TrEMBL record:
It comes from Xanthobacter agilis. This is Nitrate/nitrite transport system ATP-binding protein. Pfam families: ABC_tran. SMART domains: AAA. Transmembrane segments: none annotated.
Length: 306
């Protein structure tokens, strides 16, 4: 069980290749391995074109990898499933349905035998959870962009997916709405122990939301360079996060990667780098604590003279 939980999502040597117009193939990435434990919030960061959306689509079952496989909870993915809910940048709501209708449609697809009252109750509960109580009977066209994205989030969470997949879900929103929605998603996912894989270009968003941040090198032939364990405390709060002693340590590490190492990593791989086990990097006080734990104490009998 512990082994299944630590490999809840297991990406095993996947590749994405496309035929070139002029002949031959372009390899966007290959031999990509990654494990995500149950209940973890993981962000994937990398430059445009490195294949982040392709990885997410493969996880969603919307694309088939050119090689390799993805195992979720012990089962290989073979197509889309209600076990894996996706929130895209655009909300993709059904325009002719109300807020309640959009969420209820997902709920009744998930629990086909559920009665109307049960579907209604569950849908309303999730609509309230994302702060849209009172807007149940509005149509998407009557909502702001932020409200539509909230409906998308309610719809995804209402089906209690094993995995929540998000592709830059907040990037089209204004800064204030983005912040509020990040807070809500974080609150809900932390409270429910939701396993999440999210793509973002925003380093600060990743530091605020993620337990681990996966760094992808530039494409083509992109690789997972490393996985950064977020050193900030789980109970971090947006307004004070930048005052934490580790905040700029992790931020600078991520920015350095994006500015230079994402380009040079392929030619300057650290000794012992193994794509099957991308290194988990600990930074700041977490790194110091790990170092201390590895320090061999003097034997109790040792004296200064020994
Ligand atoms: N159907 C396709 N045929 C050929 N090439 C494709 C196809 N779909 C995607 N690609 C290429 O695959 C690469 C990776 O695309 P993908 O959208 O996964 O990258 P990304 O890292 O998510 O980029 P962005 O951050 O810009 O969204 C891109 O270079 C893209 O042009």
């Amino acid at each position: 069980m512990a082994e299944i939980d630590s490999k809840f999502i297991s990406i095993e040597g996947i590749a994405r290749r496309y035929p070139k117009r002029e002949g031959g193939v372009t390899t966007i990435f290959e031999n990509l391995w990654l494990q995500v434990p149950r209940g973890e919030f993981v962000c994937i960061i990398g430059h445009s074109g490195c294949g982040k959306t392709s990885v997410l689509n493969i996880l969603a079952g919307l694309e088939t990898p050119s090689d390799g496989a993805v195992i979720v909870d012990g089962q290989a993915i073979s197509g889309p499933s209600l076990d894996r809910a996706v929130i895209f940048q655009g909300h993709a709501l059904l325009p002719w349905r109300t807020v309640l209708g959009n969420v209820a449609y997902a709920v009744s697809s998930r629990w086909r035998k559920a009665g109307k009252a049960e579907v209604d109750e569950r849908s309303r509960r999730f609509i309230e959870l994302v702060g849209l109580k009172g807007s149940e009977l509005k149509k998407p066209a009557e909502l702001s962009g932020g409200m539509r994205q909230r409906v998308g989030i309610a719809r995804a969470l209402s089906i209690e997916p094993k995995i929540l997949l998000m592709d830059e879900p907040f990037s089209a929103l204004d800064a204030l709405t983005r912040g509020t929605l990040q807070d809500e998603v974080r609150r809900i996912c932390t409270a429910t122990g939701q396993t999440v894989v999210m793509i973002t270009h925003d380093v600060d968003e990743a530091i605020y939301l993620a337990d681990k941040i996966v760094l992808m090198t530039n494409g083509p032939e992109a690789m997972v360079a490393e996985v950064v364990a977020n050193p900030l405390p789980k109970d971090r709060v947006r307004d004070s996060i930048h005052r934490h002693e580790d905040y700029y340590v992790v931020r600078n590490h991520l920015v350095d990667f994006l500015v230079s190492r994402s380009r040079t990593f392929r030619d300057e791989k650290p000794a012992g780098y193994d794509p099957r086990r991308p290194p988990i990097v600990k930074l700041g006080s977490a790194a110091q604590a790990a170092e201390m734990a590895n320090t061999i104490p003097f034997p109790a009998t040792a004296s200064a003279r020994d």
